[in-house]
Each structure stands twice: as structure tokens, then as C-alpha cells.
């Protein structure tokens, strides 16, 4: 009998982990394990033979070797703020959750090299604060930054509001430390911007959601802290106008343009309905609002002068109908609060259908118009909550039930139909059905439906080569075999999403 054929022995595994980690760091009591067994949106609720809390990379490696010996699958978990169920175990009770939250040291800050070396369990906001203390910027920024961890950000290749200027988490990472499925430690913590010595192993693990190995530490890029930030809101007539405004802003500001967020009129009205202290910023309503931000290394005066030239031209050409510029940090924060409260307002309004999609930036206007029209015909009265990172083509394209219609009944009747419609539109525009939230267990089958057989086989080949026993977060990102007859729209409910 080979190792792969042996049945799992969870009892012996848990006992061995107690010896390796100490009994206090092997949780089995239902009260203690509960916070680790449900995803943030509570769409998935799993069971586990134990929740393991290693203190360092060597202990992670020891756990992985024990998992291999006793044939127990591991589900890596960071801050448990994911939106696709990627860090939640299945319902069998045979898997173990391995939480990285005790790997929480900042190992090094190299100001001259503009890098910071951090362990996987360091909370994103702590990295931002440490960078700021060194007069540097760590550019990744998410709504969950007070609780999400850098290991989870890397595992899902998180996006956020700074992608337009700084890129996704992948672009912010120079090197990794990883525990392989064999329990070996790969030290790839190279703080190099140029390293042309073979396959880029780092990029295999980023975005793999723990299915190929467990990220335990990373070297992340820092940038010089901007001297000034200037934030504004602009009212526009359509997403097409927003695209014209984006091109104009990029021409005027270049790399100084660090934020460009699109928000539909109904999105902002929904915020006002449920958070009345957040006032609509304009005297008259506009079909679309853009939140844009410049980060300047010269001075606030320089940034404001550039802003004034941009807005003057945009208003003269009729691209922008109205604009308001933040006068201070408090007002800037209020503008961003409007954007970040859209998902919270949706949750207050009731269950809704959510999409995290991307299309080429040039296609956004056509995608919104075409898909809105299709949904209006398929589900009359449905209310569209469209917002997202226009500068990188990522839309949170969400559908709220018609006014006065029970949200659950609406989801039961229309969700599968709307999912299929949206995914087909995304595919027609050569986009992606998951832009920044990952696949987890939520969209695995649907993603495989839209990938070519060649691409699916390549993904399965990589998984089988690195994790032949399929013990690293099985069932996530790539299935062992594609279900026959699968059609899009068959995943669990797309509801209760946090602010992206």
C-alpha cells in the first residue's frame, strides 16, 4: 500500500500535532474552533478534526509532514476575511485548519532597498503603519485591512484601491518563504527586482489559495511616502464619460493618479438611505460618480494645481458635469467612506446577487449598458448596484431585488439566471468572473467552464506535480475532475459580501 492509498488517521494526527505544537495550540473544542470554521460571509460552514496554531515556519513544516504521514488534508487560513470560501474546511470533519495568525513578526525593514520582510500572519494595517513609520508607503489597501493578513492577501492575489498605480499583491511581492506539500521549506526570500535564474516559483504560489503550498513569509515592496494626497468626486453622465475622464486624468497626472473608482447613482443613493449621515456630494444627481485621488511627491500645491487644470479641461469639454475637491484629510476620508459603505448599504437593503468581475477597461461602458439591458429584460425591476475599480477594469456588478420584493424569493427565482447571463457577458468581452476575490470553493466549477481544456489540464498538472496526495486545501481553485454537464450559475448563493 502506498502513502496515497492509506486511509487518514485524524486521531493519531491530532495527538502528534499536540506533541509538535503544544496542546494549547491544537484546538478541538467546538467553542474554540467555531471562529475558524465559517467564512466571513457565513456562506460556508465546515467541520475540522482540529485547528492548528503553529508559531513559526518550522512548526508549519512539522505539521505538513505529519499531515502527509497521517493522510490528513490541511486548509490554510489567515485573517479569515476571504469572500470565496477558500479558507473554510469541508463538512467531513476530516480536514484540519492551519491558522497562520501566530506567524506575526515583521522580520526586517530595509529602507534603502524599499522592502519589508513579514511573516504570513502579520495584519495588513500593521505593515502599512510600519512602512509609514519609515516614511514609506505599503501600497496595498483593502476594506478588511484591519483584520486580513498578508499571507491571505498573497494567497488570493488581493487587489484593492491602489491597483491602478501599484498593481495587485503579486506586483508588490519580491520573494516568498513557502512550506511545500512535502513539508520542506523553500527559502525564496530574495529582495531582488531582477532575478533571471529560471522558473518564477514565487508566482506559482501567489494566487494559489494554499493549494500548492503554504506561504509563511514574504518580501514586499515599499514606495516613498507621498508628500500630499488630493481627493475629488466628479459627477458624470455615463460610464463612457468616465472612461474618457480616466484617459484625460492619466494624460494629466500619469503615475500620480493612484485612485479612480466608479460608483453608480443608485449605489450612492443606497448609502444615503441606510447611512443618512453620509450626504450625497452634489446638488443634482448624476448617473455615475468617480472618486479619484492623486498622490504627489512634490507638494500639495503642485497636486492641487494639476487637479485644477484637469477639472477645468474636463468641465469645458463636457466630460464632467460637476466636481468637488476635498479641502482636508477629513473630507477626503468622507469621500472614501461613501465608496466603502456601498457593500454595507447593500447588506442593510437585503440579500443580493454579487459579482466580482473584470473586463478590458475599454469594454466597461459597453459591458454595463448591454448587461443592464439584459438583466432588465430577464428580471424586471431589478436594481443595479455597480461600483468598483474602473482604472483596472474590476467591477462589483451587483443586483438588488426590485423595490418591495422579498430578497430571498428574488434570489431563489433569478440568481442562477442572472449569474449565467453575467458570466456569458463577461466571457463575450474576454473578461474574468473573478477579479480580486479568488475562486476558493465558490466559483471553481464555473471558472473551469470558461477555461479551455488545455488551460484546465495545465492547472491540474501543476497541482498533481506539487501536491500529488491532494492534501493542500483540496477542492479549492482547481477541481480534480471537471463535472460533466456543468453550466454556469450553479455555485452557492452570491450573497452578503464585505467591502472589496
Automatic annotation (TrEMBL):
Keywords: FAD, Flavoprotein. One of its GO terms (molecular function) is FAD binding. GO terms for biological process: respiratory electron transport chain. Residues 469-500 are annotated as: Disordered. It comes from the Bacteria. Its cofactor is FAD. Pfam families: FAD-oxidase_C, FAD_binding_4. InterPro entries: FAD-bd_oxidored_4_C, FAD-bd_PCMH, FAD-bd_PCMH-like_sf, FAD-bd_PCMH_sub1, FAD-bd_PCMH_sub2, FAD-linked_Oxase-like_C, FAD-oxidored/transferase_4, Oxid_FAD_bind_N. The keyword Signal does not apply. Residues 44-225 form the FAD-binding PCMH-type domain. PANTHER family: BLL6224 PROTEIN, D-2-HYDROXYGLUTARATE DEHYDROGENASE, MITOCHONDRIAL. Belongs to the FAD-binding oxidoreductase/transferase type 4 family. This is 2-hydroxyacid dehydrogenase. It comes from Caballeronia glathei.
Amino acid at each position: 500500500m502506498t502513502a496515497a492509498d492509506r486511509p487518514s488517521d485524524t486521531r493519531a494526527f491530532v495527538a502528534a500535532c499536540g506533541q509538535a505544537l503544544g496542546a494549547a495550540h491544537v484546538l478541538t473544542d467546538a467553542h474554540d474552533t467555531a471562529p475558524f470554521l465559517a467564512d466571513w460571509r457565513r456562506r460556508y460552514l465546515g467541520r475540522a478534526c482540529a485547528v492548528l496554531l503553529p508559531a513559526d515556519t518550522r512548526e508549519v513544516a512539522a505539521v505538513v509532514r505529519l499531515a502527509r504521514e497521517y493522510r490528513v488534508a490541511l486548509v490554510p487560513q489567515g485573517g479569515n476575511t476571504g469572500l470565496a470560501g477558500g479558507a473554510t474546511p469541508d463538512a467531513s470533519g476530516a480536514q484540519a485548519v492551519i491558522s497562520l495568525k501566530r506567524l506575526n513578526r515583521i522580520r526586517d525593514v530595509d529602507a534603502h532597498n524599499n522592502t519589508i520582510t513579514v511573516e504570513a500572519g502579520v495584519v495588513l494595517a500593521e505593515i502599512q503603519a510600519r512602512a509609514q513609520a519609515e516614511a514609506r508607503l505599503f501600497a496595498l489597501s483593502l476594506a478588511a485591512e484591519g483584520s486580513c493578513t498578508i499571507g491571505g492577501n498573497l494567497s488570493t492575489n488581493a487587489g484593492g484601491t491602489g491597483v491602478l498605480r501599484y498593481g495587485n499583491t503579486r506586483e508588490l511581492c519580491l520573494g516568498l518563504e513557502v512550506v511545500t506539500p512535502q513539508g520542506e521549506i523553500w527559502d525564496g526570500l530574495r529582495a531582488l527586482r531582477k532575478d533571471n535564474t529560471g522558473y518564477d516559483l514565487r508566482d506559482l504560489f501567489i494566487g494559489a489559495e494554499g493549494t500548492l503550498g503554504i506561504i509563511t513569509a514574504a518580501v514586499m515592496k515599499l514606495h516613498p511616502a507621498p508628500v500630499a494626497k488630493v481627493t475629488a468626486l466628479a459627477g458624470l453622465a455615463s460610464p463612457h464619460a468616465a472612461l474618457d475622464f480616466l484617459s484625460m486624468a492619466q494624460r494629466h497626472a500619469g503615475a500620480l493618479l493612484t485612485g479612480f473608482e466608479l460608483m453608480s447613482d443608485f449605489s450612492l443613493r443606497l448609502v444615503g438611505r441606510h447611512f443618512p449621515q453620509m450626504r450625497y456630494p452634489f446638488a443634482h444627481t448624476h448617473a455615475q460618480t468617480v472618486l479619484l485621488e492623486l498622490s504627489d511627491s512634490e507638494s500639495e500645491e503642485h497636486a492641487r494645481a494639476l487637479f485644477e487644470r484637469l477639472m477645468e479641461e474636463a468641465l469645458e469639454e463636457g466630460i464632467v458635469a460637476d466636481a468637488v475637491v476635498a479641502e482636508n484629510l477629513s473630507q477626503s476620508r468622507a469621500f472614501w467612506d461613501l465608496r466603502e459603505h456601498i457593500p454595507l448599504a447593500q447588506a442593510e437593503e437585503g440579500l443580493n446577487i454579487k459579482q466580482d468581475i473584470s473586463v478590458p477597461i475599454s469594454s466597461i461602458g459597453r459591458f454595463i449598458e448591454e448587461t443592464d439591458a439584459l438583466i432588465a429584460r430577464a428580471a424586471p425591476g431589478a436594481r443595479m448596484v455597480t461600483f468598483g475599480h474602473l482604472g483596472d477594469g474590476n467591477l462589483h456588478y451587483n443586483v438588488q431585488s426590485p423595490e418591495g420584493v422579498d430578497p430571498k424569493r428574488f434570489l431563489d427565482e433569478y440568481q442562477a439566471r442572472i449569474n449565467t447571463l453575467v458570466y456569458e457577458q463577461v466571457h463575450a468581452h474576454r473578461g474574468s468572473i473573478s477579479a480580486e476575490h479568488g475562486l476558493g470553493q465558490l466559483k471553481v466549477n464555473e471558472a473551469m467552464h470558461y477555461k479551455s481544456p488545455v488551460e484546465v489540464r495545465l492547472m491540474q498538472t501543476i497541482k498533481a506535480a506539487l501536491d500529488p496526495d491532494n492534501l493542500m486545501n483540496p477542492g479549492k481553485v482547481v477541481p480534480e475532475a471537471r463535472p460533466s454537464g456543468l453550466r454556469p450559475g450553479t455555485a452557492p448563493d452570491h450573497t452578503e459580501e464585505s467591502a472589496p
